[in-house]
Structure prediction request, 448 residues.
Amino acid sequence: MRYIKCYYLPILLSLLVCSCGEYKLEEEADGVIEDNPHTVQVVTRSDNNAPIHYPLTVYLFNEQGQCVGQEIIADESVAYSRKLSEGKYTIVLLSGVTEDEYFMPIDIAPGSYITLKESNFAQAPIQIAQTQVNLTKSTTVQMTLSYAVASVGFVINEVPAEATQVSVGISPVSSGIAFDGNYKEDKQSCTVPCVKEDGQWISETVYIFPNESTSTHLSVQIELPDGNKTYGYTYQAALRAGYPYQFTGNIKDGIILNGEFQAEGWRPVVDVEFGISEVIPDNPDGGGTDEEEPDGGIESDGTDTYFVSELPEAESIWEGFYVWRTENVSATECEALILSPDQLELPATQGREELINYEVSGIEGWRVFTKEEAKDFIAQYVDSLDDLNELLLENGLAIFYCNEEEGDRYLCNNCLSSFAFWSSSISVVGSKRSYFLRPVKTVRLKVR
Prediction:
């Protein structure tokens, strides 16, 4: 994602310590610390080599979800190290939460939301990392900060010269994010203003919280002396955290997601072309349209059978999923092994819990590759991973990573083993590092 200069107010963050309660991490009697304390240290890195913007704030939650500690890490020279009693803890790292743009919850809890004050977009991006620790001995935890927002910017050409104002609406977006990393999913909208520069109308780069959706609605609103116009567009995917979206184009020929926009630490730009779908009369009441993204997922018979207009081929995209393999059952039915559009980075011990709770487009019951599938997947794409990633990017799906220096590895074998594209070995997972989790699922597809 692209970074804008952030301004932090340590006074605000220090005041928040009060909302963490009166819980004491260590009780001392006659100079002796009770409850078998152990040291937990945090080593911080960033996803995709993104710059880490200090200060960071560390939140510590106990097994009951109570906030039992909060501390500011001023810069990279300051290490986080604490003695804690034995038990299970959740550690959350946050960067980019500024007082002028975000509301912090009064009650600091894993499910409490950090929300935007207004406009539903920010000019400073948030990074977040979370890990769970079962502290039975002194432990060093590596935490990877990832962008929790999508970066969005607009350049609109060929706007009528008499236009007095141009803005772009985006929906749906979320208005906040919880400490556990979940978005508020409240289907809000935001309007990004543009400024005229040398005949173009250009917006600032802004940052939005994604909302789970099968499509994103855009509207270019133009104020004219003889009446206002709104041009509507639909991007057939959700905007994803960690990706920059730079929309450029003109009113006559449509909108293009331009691949020119890059910045260190963000994923490659998604390159998608749009056309104008409709012209909507200006609404003087400011109410907009009643269109809302419908809930629910892909049509199913209530099992893992999903209805399609035609059977997809192997190594293709179907309804936002990558279809790796297919096996025909009949002329109108097949079994397909599909890959989720998302992937997470987390300790192996969290993998199975994430899979239990994972759901996308109404599809549940995900798993990871078996050992045999992992070996086949490596063999198939070890020499063509760039081509696979290009296809994934073009369709708004997360790409696969293959950095040996960073030790990029993916979970398989019920999260007990891991594989990498730079190695032919399947290895037992370790407890002191994180892995990528890419959910997969075998489904039956049937022509209606």
Notes: The longest strand covers residues 188-197. The chain has a mean pLDDT of 79. The chain is about 10% helix and 40% strand.
